[in-house]
Amino acid sequence: MFESFTVNEDRVAPALLESCDVIDAIRYKAGFLPEVELAYEAAIKTLWVTIRPELKPVFTLQLLDSLVKIQSAIFALWGAPDQYHRVPVRFLAFRGTGPFFTLGGDLDFYLDCLAKNDRAALSEYARLSAEGAIWNSGGLNGLVVTLSTIHAKAIGGGIDAPRSCNVMIAEEQASFVYPEIKFNHFPITAVAILSRRMGPRAAEKLLMSGEEMSAQAFMEAGGLEAVVPTGTGEAWIRKYCADALPIHAAKTALFAAFNRRAGDLREELAHLGQIWADCMLRLSPSAISKLQRIAQTQDRMLARVYQRQTETA
Model's pTM, two decimal places? Predict the structure, then answer.
């Protein structure tokens, strides 16, 4: 069973207080959480969030909403100053599963919005992308250390959510690429998130080139804290959390201080969200056709990968 913890009775129903665990409390507060799985390790006070998009390994609106609800729920439950010594979650760690970590943003959603000229839906997608990055980079307002591990290829805007974490690592077989420039658009939060880690010149070079980088090259450019052997990403994070637990207060304070020093991320991402929606709505018919072909290519590629997995099972 999970270790005991204290929650605010005004925030959680008494019936839940009688018999509950960390995940129950978060789910009760957050509500419906599609496309994610939660696991809790009491020994290292770590909540694992496994990203599991249902149709394609992309960052859907539903996935973004689930991530923000989890972040918000943790802070709502245990973010009060008098709760600090009883907080059951000191580390919030993200991981993926399957042959890809992410194929990036949800092209099918984008195309549907463009067909309807639905700026409101695009803006909501941008808002949730920004909100999740803000929570991650600030460690839920200094409450936790946020971490992520990348086990496979990561493409486009789907890199930004894990990179917004305080610590991001990758297994040696992983790779990173932002191909958006080739299709006449750009990832919503990448300029802000990458610039904070790699510096603006390195971020600009990566986003403008559209070229794929190995995990090692991405780390050397400033994009990662570590590259680890295949299959050891989660173990690396577990060791990090165990080692950091005794100095958690100092870690969160330093991450919060550096995050503040980097500038007002909320204001920057709000601006980026606006210009991203503008850019999407200005795509020419030929650019939209190209996005349609890419979405279809993703479908075929995934079908081949899953077929090979079935044949070798």
Answer: 0.91
